[in-house]
Amino acid sequence: DGGITQSPKYLFRKEGQNVTLSCEQNLNHDAMYWYRQDPGQGLRLIYYSQIVNDFQKGDIAEGYSVSREKKESFPLTVTSAQKNPTAFYLCASSIGEWETQYFGPGTRLLVL
Amino acid sequence: AQSVAQPEDQVNVAEGNPLTVKCTYSVSGNPYLFWYVQYPNRGLQFLLKYITGDNLVKGSYGFEAEFNKSQTSFHLKKPSALVSDSALYFCAVRADRGGSQGNLIFGKGTKLSVKP
Fold it and tell me: CA distances (Å), A63 to each of A16, A68, A110, in order?
């Protein structure tokens, strides 16, 4: 069953804590993306990666970090520097940078 | 700069009636346009896209969209709405390869409510 998986579905973060959101795809896509969704604001791009071992900042990268060590995996770390992390986080992938993006089911991050 | 506007926060339609969800865009170069749908607490599902060619694009679940270059619009339509179409709809745009920026820009979303 091909697709994009994100885990966990819900994640709770304490003050000063770093947390990592998982994104895995078995579609053999080269490009992967992380978006943040807040109510009434649509989706905003955090980071994207066009190829393994390379990634670029999106519009709201501050307080976040990523890695792309494997083609199928693109984890996102929400660091303690991100002061307002409560949001719905969506991972996406595409065959190439210019192709249609397909989305995972999302992770909802809440702050305790 | 690229931008997308979805002028209606919410659209209400009776089941069986036609529906339209509006989208206008601004982009340098030729636009690539997309529609996605999101059900509560789920990821986005791809509905359709316009790259080039016929201005009327047909997509999943009976949806279609009409590209209008002069009005810079890409409205989503369906001839007969279903209650199950109730969801949040996002329009997105980016420039073609000759444009200044390749990232996908999303509108703020339009909530579609279809009543029985």
Answer: 12, 18, 15
